[in-house]
């Protein structure tokens, strides 16, 4: 009986083991499908990322083919550049002129233009378009139309949290309500900075086929961006914190996605500033700046794979700081090869023991690879496009790669000045192989003809003008009434001329009168003689 009851109970259970398993499977099926939908693309992306990394690492690094140039690392980015922030010298290059999508690294230009055209406390009002043109799922801080933030708060939201609606609002604010006016300003400013292959159609880098740039152009923009200490400090801030106000009721707290900052996964101790960027088309992008031992470098990574944009950036910074030196020209230059025609070489000091008037700028420098000796680099002198204080400009290069420039300035040297031009050799032979110049003979040659011409023209003209002015002053001192005397003499001369005319006229009339009298006298004598003859005729002797 008990067995029978137990058997009936088992048969009559509502949830048998098979039913339970079926129910669980039905309930978990949507979850399994959802998870599979999410995981499959991730696995696919991971597979694609590996292929992309391997493909990009096989791309040529153009700087590595330069003879005797330090060999740079092979990185997973499609394009990359390492540039000296001061001189613009390129230490590492990989497809630096290839057009790429910049993603949110566009915002360094947006923030640069805003900082140049606005005060930090100006109020930015968010329009309907600024908010609703921001795609769902893209970076934002959930600002509503009509709310207000200051320019500084917008800069923080853009550089820390990469907020797209803040980029739109700030662009409209700078453009006077016209977003297109700001975009035109972006393209104009990029050209001013020397960009060659860039075109921007929005202020935040959202995907668009007509929105592109290059590593080289972004580095040029970065040179100007990282000069701004405020922008650098904001980009190094790990957390955005905006407090409520009368026009913005929420307290906004957001963390940065930049993993190179302090206490982050890929912290880099020499970092000065950075801006990240990412879209599916652009890949992972990073523009950053680091400084070590007085050398400040800018690195741009485009088209990389997470997290290699950080690893590749650190690798390039370490490569630059380890393989290149910052060389001060005024402390190193002991000779100069003139390849520019028209220069004049002389060993005569026309100024005797006078103080030198030319000196190398003591702040100018070049970036020199440690594998290259200073005596092996080339230099050329130019006299075009100079500033008022410059006499010439020396450009240094190695294997046709620009290393930097140094200006030759008009200056009165002192004990702190750099190398001066007070010594000239008796003769110079310009050849590829030059004789060794002793250390104490610090010599450089400049275009003496051109400089001497300017000195003679301006010096002679100034001296002549000075002598004329001094002569006039001295004459007036010796003749205080010179003007009155001059007028008196002038009147005398006029009266004298007038009197002479009168006397001449009188003498002429007197001469004519005398001549007329003579004619009349002669006529009377002739008449008198004829009368006398007629009287005597009757009494003629027979």
Care to describe what's here?
- The protein has 542 residues and is α+β, with helices and mostly antiparallel strands.
- It has three domains: 62-324, DD-peptidase/beta-lactamase superfamily (Beta-lactamase, 3-Layer(aba) Sandwich), CATH 3.40.710; 333-446, no CATH class; 448-484.
- 42% of the residues lie in helices and 17% in strands.
- The protein is built from 13 helices and 15 strands.
- The protein has helices spanning 2-11, 17-57, 107-117, 128-132, 151-161, 164-174, 179-192, 215-225, 229-235, 308-323, 329-332, 448-478, 482-536, and strands spanning 79-84, 90-94, 123-125, 148-150, 239-242, 252-255, 271-279, 283-292, 295-304, 324-328, 358-360, 365-369, 378-382, 390-398, 401-410.
- The strands form five sheets. Strands 2-1-9-8-7 form a five-stranded antiparallel beta sheet, with helices on both faces. A four-stranded antiparallel beta sheet has the order 11-15-14-13, with no helix packed on it.
- A hairpin with a 2-residue loop joins strand 14 (390-398) and strand 15 (401-410).
- Helix 3 (107-117) packs antiparallel against helix 5 (151-161), helix 3 (107-117) runs parallel beside helix 6 (164-174) and helix 3 runs parallel beside helix 8 (215-225).
- The longest helix has 55 residues, at 482-536.
- The chain is elongated.
- It starts with a helix and ends in a 6-residue tail after the last helix.
- The model is unreliable at 1-15, 41-45, 337-354 and 422-444 (pLDDT under 50).
């Amino acid at each position: 009986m008990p067995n029978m009851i137990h058997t009936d109970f088992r048969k009559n259970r509502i949830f048998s083991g098979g039913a339970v398993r079926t129910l669980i499977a039905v309930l978990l099926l949507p979850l399994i499908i959802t998870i599979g939908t999410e995981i499959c693309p991730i696995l696919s992306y991971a597979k694609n990322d590996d292929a992309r990394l391997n493909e990009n690492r096989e791309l040529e690094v153009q700087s590595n083919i330069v003879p005797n140039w330090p060999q740079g690392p092979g990185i997973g980015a499609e394009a990359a550049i390492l540039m000296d922030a001061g001189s613009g010298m390129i230490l590492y290059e990989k497809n630096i002129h290839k057009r790429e999508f910049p993603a949110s690294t566009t915002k360094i230009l947006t923030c640069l233009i805003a900082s140049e055209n606005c005060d930090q406390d100006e109020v930015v009002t968010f329009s309907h378009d600024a908010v609703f043109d921001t795609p769902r799922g893209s970076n934002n801080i959930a600002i509503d139309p009509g709310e207000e933030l200051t320019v500084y708060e917008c800069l923080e939201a853009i550089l820390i949290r990469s907020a797209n609606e803040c980029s739109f609002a700030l662009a409209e604010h700078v453009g006077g309500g016209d977003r297109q006016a700001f975009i035109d300003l972006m393209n104009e400013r990029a050209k001013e900075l020397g960009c060659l292959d860039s075109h921007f159609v929005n202020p935040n880098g959202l995907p668009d086929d007509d929105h592109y740039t290059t590593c080289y152009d972004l580095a040029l923009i970065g040179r100007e961006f990282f000069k701004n200490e405020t922008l650098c400090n904001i980009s190094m801030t790990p957390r955005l914190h905006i407090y409520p106000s009368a026009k913005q009721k929420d307290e906004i707290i957001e963390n940065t996605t930049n993993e190179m900052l302090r206490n982050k996964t890929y912290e880099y101790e020499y970092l000065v500033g950075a801006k990240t960027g990412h879209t599916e088309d652009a890949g992972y992008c990073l523009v950053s700046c680091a400084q070590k031992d007085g050398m400040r470098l800018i690195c741009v990574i485009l088209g990389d794979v997470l997290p290699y944009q950080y690893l590749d950036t650190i690798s390039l910074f370490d490569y630059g700081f380890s393989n290149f030196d910052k060389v001060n020209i005024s402390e190193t230059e002991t000779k100069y090869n003139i390849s520019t025609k028209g220069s004049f070489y002389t060993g005569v000091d026309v100024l005797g023991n006078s103080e030198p008037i030319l000196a190398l700028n003591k702040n100018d420098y070049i970036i020199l690879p440690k594998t290259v000796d200073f005596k092996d680099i080339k230099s050329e002198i130019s006299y075009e496009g100079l500033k008022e204080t410059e006499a010439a400009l020396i450009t240094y290069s190695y294997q046709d790669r620009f290393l930097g420039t140094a200006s030759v300035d008009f200056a009165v040297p002192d004990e702190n000045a750099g190398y001066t031009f007070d010594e000239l050799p008796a003769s110079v032979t310009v050849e590829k192989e030059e004789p060794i110049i002793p250390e104490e003979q610090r010599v450089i040659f400049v275009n003496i003809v051109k400089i001497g011409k300017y000195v003679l023209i301006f010096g002679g003209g100034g001296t002549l003008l000075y002598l004329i002015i001094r002569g006039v002053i001295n004459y007036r001192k010796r003749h205080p009434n010179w003007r009155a005397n001059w007028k008196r003499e002038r009147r005398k001369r006029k009266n004298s001329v007038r009197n002479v005319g009168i006397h001449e006229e009188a003498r002429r009339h007197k001469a004519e009168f005398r001549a007329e009298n003579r004619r009349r006298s002669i006529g009377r004598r002739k008449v008198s003689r004829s009368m006398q003859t007629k009287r005597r005729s009757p009494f003629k002797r027979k």
